[in-house]
Amino acid sequence: MGYRIHITGAAGAGVSTLGQKLARELDLPLLDTDDYYWKPTKVPFTEKRTVPERLDMMRAAQPAGGWIVAGSLMGWGEELVQDADLVIFVYTPHDLRMHRLKARETRRYGSRIAEGGDMYLIHECFMGWASRYDDPCSKGRSLTCHNNWLDQMGLPVLRLDGQRGVSHMARQTLSALIPPIRSSGHKPLAPNLP
């Protein structure tokens, strides 16, 4: 059996990028939580699926042989996280995250997110929401909420610095995965990195 890994962090931290890299390195399927959270619509990210619908879809997509789930499950997918061997938390400082997000959204949606575009307001709201992640008083997904959530999960957490780049984070992850997790029934050792 393969590893079961959940990767989480703020928008723009490098969660999806690390998930893609590890999926290739470990030959595991990658499930992006956004694909299950949001319904496919003409204007993306406008219609949520119900929690039971998301959970059913994700359970059906998770093969027994291991998986990587990238994205946030906080507040709706805790039962899925409990099946993980390792939770990876990627932290990237605000300015770098916001720079990455702006570049990513422009690359994905181009003129649709420009003033007058059909996604302009959604994009502005998203960027505003993402910019408040490091604010301890922010409601919703925030660094404070994420840290509390990770503490409550009771699972090994590998904390990675998203400034270091995807190759460095992948090497740190691979060194933290001590085989054979499944055959021994033991959880992997995961140092609590800054």
Kindly describe this structure.
It is a single chain. With about 190 residues, this protein is α/β, with parallel strands linked by helices. The protein has a single domain (about 5-95, about 140-185), classed as 3-Layer(aba) Sandwich (Rossmann fold). It contains 9 helices and 5 strands; from the N terminus they run βαβααβαβαααβαα. The chain has helices spanning about 15-25, 35, 50-60, 80, 95-110, 120-130, 145-155, 165-175, 180-185; strands at about 5-10, 30, 65-70, 85-90, 155-160. A 5-stranded parallel sheet has the order 2-3-1-4-5, with helices on both faces. α1 crosses α8 (about 165-175) and α5 packs antiparallel against α6 (about 120-130). The chain starts with a strand and ends in a 10-residue tail after the last helix. The model is unreliable at about 180-194 (pLDDT under 50).
